[in-house]
Amino acid sequence: MMHKKRPKFLDVKSIRLPIPGIVSILHRISGVALFVCLPLLLCLFAGTLSKESAFESYQAWVNNPLVILILIGLLWAYLHHSLAGIRFLLLDAHKGLALQTARATAKAVFVAAIVLTVVIAGVCLL
Fold it and tell me: Where is it found, in Gene Ontology cellular component terms (predicted)?
């Protein structure tokens, strides 16, 4: 009688992802967020170009703190997705495959996206 190896139970909540894994998952999430919100942003932009009164109503709508927070989140998603995409293109070209380099570039993408979001949002909101 042959014993089959039973599949190992992996508790997803107890798995601790390394920073490159977190950056990869956030890259996918930010891509989905951008894909879903792009039509809404295009409608908003097209509406602002139609009439001056429409522009003023959209401007009042965009001054809502919740909308500002969503736009800042989309700015972060765009920056993170772009920077992580460049990182993945370099990895596809076999640049930065060493473990320490991969971790360092993942940390750099994570930090740079947050810093650029704060700087750009700060400049746009002042």
Answer: plasma membrane
